[in-house]
Amino acid sequence: YSSAVQKFSQTLQSFQFDFIGDTLTDDEINIAESFKEFAELLHEVELERSMMVQNASDLLIKPLENFRKEQIGFTKERKKKFEKDGEKFYSMLDRHLHLSSKKKESQLQEADLQVDKERHNFFESSLEYVYQIQEVQESKKFSIVEPVLAFLHSLFTYNNLTVELTQDFLPYKQQLQLSLQNTRNHFSSTREELEDLKKRMKEAPLTCKLPGQPTIEGYLYTQEKWALGISWVKYYCQYEKEAKTLRMTPIDQKPGAKQGTLDLTLKSCVRRKTDSIDKRFCFDIETNERSGTITLQALSEANRRLWMEAMDGKEPIYHSPITKQEEMELNEVGFKFVRKCINAVETKGITTEGVYRTVGSNIQVQKLLNAFFDPKCPGDVDLQSGDWDIKTITSSLKFYLRNLSEPVMTYKLHKELVQAAKSENLDYRLGAIHALVYKLPDKNREMLELLIQHLVNICEHSRENLMSPSNMGVIFGPTLMRAQEDTVAAMMNIKFQNIVVEILIEHFGKIYSGPPEDTTAPPVPPPRVAARRHKPITISKRPLRERPLFFDASVEESGAERLGQTPNGGGVEAPKPLHRSRLPAPRPGGDEPGRPPAESRSQLRAEPELGKLVSRLQDGGAKPAGRAANGVVTSPALRTATLQNRRPAPRPGIYGRDGDCDSVPKPRSHGDKPVITRPPVRPPDPPCRTPIPPKLEQRPDLIAGTAEEMPSSV
């Protein structure tokens, strides 16, 4: 599992996002860098996990194996020697007892000396065997528990790290979720525009509109009057909207005719009434070069609509319930309509959940607009009455703004506003948009201020209506701004239109407090050569935390390895047991809510006493006191268990139903260290006595002699 996670982490580290467009939003930058943050987080967790697994071998398995080999194995050797010397002594003693008393005195004395010598060897073997049994029985109490305790310390250190990483990850997760939600909203808004564009392109497949090329181009038929009558000539036409120039190239040119390409400057364009001509799809244009009107025939109704939109023809927006040209401008009736809608929303719908995001009925919207913009009594509609719900009012306001002949923020400034939103310099964004707002015509700036003030009021109630500045930007970005040419590239810039509106809402007070000192926009910053000023969000980096040295290395080597650590704690070399040069440090200013108190967390960290214990285990068990391999001077007191608290054995027979006894401590107060006590499974054994080999138990006189002959040093 750990290996699979490591491979997954490497995949995330090397993964690269591909984006369409020349610039990324701040949210897209956060998303693009998120996999690297995930990879570092997984790497740090798996690094600590691998160290924990290695600690299981170095701190638990190896010390227990060493105890078994060195202590228990040595005891078995003592037992063999004792049995061998015992057999030898008893056999000699039997032979000695069978000696005849009639033998010479010198022979008897020599036999007595040999028996005394074997008896002394046997006594030494028995004493060494008994002493070794006693040493094993006593030392196993701490030599076996200490490795388990050290391993548990390593295990809880790993768990403590994952808890602290989780606490550090939560703020990053919330910010990333916000970026994901904003990006999803931009995607939804862009997808709707792209679907609408695709639908329009299917309706008029012969019309091509490309950026940097003629605004619109395609085939048109021109009515030409001759002496003998009227004829229709087919032309390939290219119209440049900015220069208002129309280039007409004849297709079916008659042989010998001198007719060539015509370059005309457009003055006006008017739809031709159907009942005034016997041809369909016709419209009239006036030019500076020719007197009178020129009648053109498009290929279809949809094709005629596109030509007239490009030429600013006097043709209503397709399917628009507003039918009069003067009603498509920012006139007095339009301002009255916007103010009435704003007053109605702020009076009875400002806390409505999803206000402006929820769409009203299209039939009701058309009914409201037709009633309000009725030429006989314009504006004579009471929006405060119960006849109009909030969804209908908000949808009508958005429809009116979107179907103006020119958007509130004008076609002229559209490109500059988008470029300002694309800037990586946050100060430049605000400064450029601030300056461009005051380049708008007076009516447009007044309408924009009216709308943005209203959106600010809406966002102030975001806890109730759940509409943040980012959400309002997604809704009103395409409403207040739109490109003059419908292209896929223009659709991809919708997310930056949303950012412009979001900036206007967030900095309304500064922008509308007055024009900037210099009314011109700041110069465009040079291309990026250094790091982006708006840095992507990251998981919080914790400062280094000191930790005692638990392995065979010098302090200087430890410092060198600390320098080789990555910012998130990953090392270049293979991990060493319980060695992390950087661990999560306690945060300044106390404990955070929901986290364990500092006292309980500190018990899981490297305590000096436990550090000495682990150091002694890794040095191979019990060693003479003195200077350890890592240069730390240890005292003889370290050979005793530092964490053992001697407690009297609980008395049998006094446990209640819940396993309580009178020796169990009372509930500890805050700050006291916990003491783990467990009721014994069986009553304690009687007072321990030194184990005696079976053969010695049969010879009490030998045991007594052993005590008399035991050296004082022993």
TrEMBL record:
CDD domains (alphabetical):
BAR-PH_GRAF_family, RhoGAP_Graf
The UniProt entry's GO biological process terms, in alphabetical order, are: actin cytoskeleton organization; negative regulation of proteasomal protein catabolic process; nervous system development; regulation of endocytosis; regulation of synaptic transmission, glutamatergic; signal transduction; synaptic vesicle endocytosis
Recorded hits in InterPro entries, A to Z, give: AH/BAR_dom_sf (IPR027267), BAR_dom (IPR004148), GRAF_fam (IPR047234), PH-like_dom_sf (IPR011993), PH_domain (IPR001849), PH_GRAF (IPR047225), Rho_GTPase_activation_prot (IPR008936), RhoGAP_dom (IPR000198)
Q: Give the location in the cell.
A: Cell projection, Dendrite; Cell projection, Dendritic spine; Cytoplasm; Presynapse
Q: Which residues form the PH domain?
A: 213-316
Instruction: Using the UniProt record, give the first listed, main subcellular location.
Output: other
UniProt region (Disordered), positions on chain: 516-543, 557-714
Pro residues: bias regions: 680-694
Basic and acidic residues bias locations: 657-675
Q: Name one GO molecular function term.
A: GTPase activator activity
State the UniProt keywords alphabetically.
Answer: Cell projection, Cytoplasm, Endocytosis, GTPase activation, Neurogenesis, Synapse
One term under GO cellular component: terminal bouton
Ranges where the Rho-GAP domain occurs: 328-512
Pfam families linked: BAR_3, PH, RhoGAP
Under the heading PROSITE patterns, the entry gives: PH_DOMAIN (PS50003), RHOGAP (PS50238)
Complexes and interactors? Interacts with HOMER1. Interacts with AMPA receptor complexes. Interacts with SH3GL2 (endophilin-A1). Interacts (via C-terminus) with NR1D1.
Q: What is this protein called?
A: Oligophrenin-1
Source species of the chain: Vireo altiloquus
